[in-house]
Design goal:
two-stranded antiparallel ribbon, elongated
């Protein structure tokens, strides 16, 4: 959990400083619209431990667009301020 918080802070620190990133973020907020590809995620199952035949031994992970993650991190920070 700490690693996730650190990665979010690093992403927020650098994503908003990039002029293109800032412009894209502001445009998305202005038009209240994001690209449809950002709304898609691919779910992958990761085996935890134990018997692979037992469905309870698998955990789903959602793989999302990196730019969508950066956008949501910036948006969450903006809302929190």
């Amino acid at each position: 959990m700490v690693l996730l918080k650190c990665s979010n802070l690093i992403a927020l620190k650098y994503a908003y400083r990039i002029p293109r990133g800032r412009k894209l973020y502001n445009r998305c907020r202005e038009f209240r619209c994001i690209h449809s590809a950002w709304k898609r995620a691919m779910t992958v199952l990761i085996h935890k431990k134990g018997d692979p035949a037992d469905p309870g031994n698998w955990r789903p992970i959602a793989l999302c667009s990196t730019i969508a993650k950066l956008y949501t991190i910036c948006l969450a920070a903006h809302i929190a301020d």
